[in-house]
Amino acid sequence: MEIELHKIKIRDLVAGYKDSNEEGVVGWNGRLNIRPKYQREFVYKDKQRDAVIDTVSKEFPLNVMYWVKCGEEEYEVLDGQQRTISICQYINGDFSFDMRYFHNLQDDEKNKILDYELMVYFCEGTESEKLKWFQTINIAGEKLTEQEIRNAVYSGSWVSDAKRYFSKTNAPAYGLGGEYMSGSPIRQDYLETAISWISKGNIETYMGNHQHDPNANELWLYFQSVIAWVKATFPTYRKEMKGLDWGLWYNKLKDKPLDSTKLEAEVSRLMQDEDVTSRKGIYEYLLFGDERHLSIRAFRDSDKRYAYESQLGICVKCGEHFAIEEMEADHIIPWSKGGKTDKDNCQMLCKQCNRRKSNK
Prior knowledge:
Number of helices: 16
Oligomer: single chain
Structural class: alpha+beta
């Protein structure tokens, strides 16, 4: 892994600066991809943006930036994107600072800013070396997400196209499946989730294998299939559906016939069941049958004491006497068959008998 510290003057940084929705943001005479197209949008507020210009105008040091090499003489901003765009926008006349635009400054004031030297680390190496290094350094400013780091490490035609679908607030993935996704598209959460689903958790391997693909059609078509399957399986949307592992469930069940009418009826019933404390777990329970996802309400201590005293401390399975601390509460009529979590449906079993019953 090669890491070199360079001093880059602002006048050189802003040379050839362009900001385009189609081509992203570039500078340094076209050699620097400041914001690759479809990557995170500009998120600095006026106060943060002004603080950057104030720091530069006073010749105070800005935090070090990181550029990653992605071509023969081409680089992409890994860390420092917001600061870099703030500088370029100010020089370009997009906003004023301290009630003055850059073109309103005297020549000596302009040159003072243009000759300001940014401290930039140039990073070059294999994908695995860069990934390991980026994960361990203390990135200045706003912390990069794991996926933002991966995007820099595996930059190329595939990542650029994938961002087009997943990495803007108004991106196609947001419009199609935003109700089912958690996180923020501009912080790469949607992209990370989709890759995790299709790769079954092997994100780096998948990105490495597809890094130089001309497009991300496979991922986008897969994502569309997942969302279509969810909508067909559970036609009624509920807020509890947001952020669930839909892609992983789709991978396992996409070829299995499911009765959406019966599933919807069960969802409605369970949503009204006061014993179900995890409403989000209803969907996984219905698809895979494990009651643990529902976090069924536990018996109250008073219910356990009532049952214990009624049984005279005797386990109803083995007939042995135990202290209450050596026993566990159990549903007489199983919850799955309509039994409620109340004192009239509570029995005390010794721990060994209760475990044997649970394993059946």
